[in-house]
């Protein structure tokens, strides 16, 4: 599988939609998790994989698990009883692009049970805007939004050396000055070949363009969030520098 992942509210649904409209194989669209008021156009997530990842994270706590995400040890323990489903889903979606944010937390379970993860596209967005969106949708305080943001990317970062990864920056994707460049690089990374004119049309017709949203100067990120965000931005800048050579 090729994964599209990253923290919730980081633009992953928009990015998955762009891949879908570009003709990429995201699996049977009839089995996508349906849209809602937060993502009217849909989430582009396969319900079968979503159910596995939700079970791995939530356990008996349901959504309360997000107040304190389960450890890697707990995830692996829960994965034992889901092993058959993990293996079956891996075979079913092995040649496809799969979007699911929870892979940031559950990836160790999939790897432990033989899933072949070819590449990962990590969606990143300014932490302030992620936390603000989570507060609006889930009614959680900013400090918890920052904590969840940090934990998702910190766990995913541990696999960036072992599995080929690339970042796509939501704030640049939605900026008309950078959207074509940002999307073109992501499509090419997942071997989706599309003429430049069609990429421009996708950006024009699907992306709600707006200037890059920087966090207010008054935002004082927790030190771990600031450090990790700087690392992600640095990685993003380096990959574009390499691509342009």
Largest sheet, in brief, is:
4 strands, parallel
Helix content: 40-55%
Silhouette: globular
Provide mean pLDDT, rounded.
93
Fold and architecture overview:
The structure is a single chain. The chain is an alpha/beta fold and 245 residues long. It has a single domain, classed as Rossmann fold (3-Layer(aba) Sandwich), CATH 3.40.50. The protein is 51% helix and 8% strand. It contains 11 helices and 4 strands; from the N terminus they run E-H-H-H-H-E-H-E-H-H-E-H-H-H-H. It has a 4-stranded parallel beta sheet with strand order 2-1-3-4, with helices on both faces. Helix 6 packs across helix 7, helix 7 crosses helix 11 and helix 9 crosses helix 10. It starts with a strand and ends with a helix. 36% of the residues are buried. The model has no long low-confidence stretch (mean pLDDT 93).
Task: Lay out the secondary structure.
Layout: E1 2-6, H1 12-21, H2 47-58, H3 72-79, H4 83-92, E2 97-99, H5 103-112, E3 119-124, H6 127-138, H7 142-157, E4 165-169, H8 170-173, H9 179-189, H10 196-206, H11 223-243
Parallel strand pairs: 1-2, 1-3, 3-4
Features:
245 residues, alpha/beta, Rossmann fold, 4-stranded parallel beta sheet, 11 helices, globular
Short summary of the structure?
The chain is α/β, with parallel strands linked by helices. The protein has 11 helices and 4 strands. Strands 2-1-3-4 form a 4-stranded parallel β-sheet, with helices on both faces.
């Amino acid at each position: 599988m090729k994964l599209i992942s990253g923290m919730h509210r980081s633009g992953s649904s928009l990015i998955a939609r762009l891949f879908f409209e570009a003709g990429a194989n995201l699996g049977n669209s009839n089995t996508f998790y349906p849209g809602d008021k937060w993502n009217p156009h849909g989430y582009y997530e396969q319900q079968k994989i979503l159910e596995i990842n939700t079970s791995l994270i939530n356990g008996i706590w349901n959504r309360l698990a997000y107040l304190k995400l389960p450890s890697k040890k707990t995830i692996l323990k829960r994965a034992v009883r889901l092993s058959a489903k993990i293996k079956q889903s891996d075979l079913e979606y092995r040649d496809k692009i799969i979007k699911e944010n929870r892979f940031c937390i559950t990836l160790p379970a999939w790897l432990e049970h033989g899933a072949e993860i070819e590449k990962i596209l990590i969606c990143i967005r300014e932490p302030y805007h992620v936390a603000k969106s989570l507060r609006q949708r889930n009614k959680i305080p900013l400090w918890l939004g920052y904590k969840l943001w940090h934990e998702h990317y910190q766990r995913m970062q541990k696999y960036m050396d072992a599995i080929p990864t690339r970042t796509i920056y939501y704030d640049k994707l939605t900026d008309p000055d950078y959207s074509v460049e940002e999307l073109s690089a992501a499509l090419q990374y997942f071997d989706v070949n599309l003429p430049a004119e069609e990429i421009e049309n996708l950006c024009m017709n699907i992306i709600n363009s707006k200037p890059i949203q920087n966090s207010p100067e008054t935002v004082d990120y927790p030190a771990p969030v600031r450090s990790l965000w700087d690392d992600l931005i640095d990685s993003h800048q380096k990959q574009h520098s390499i691509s342009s050579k």
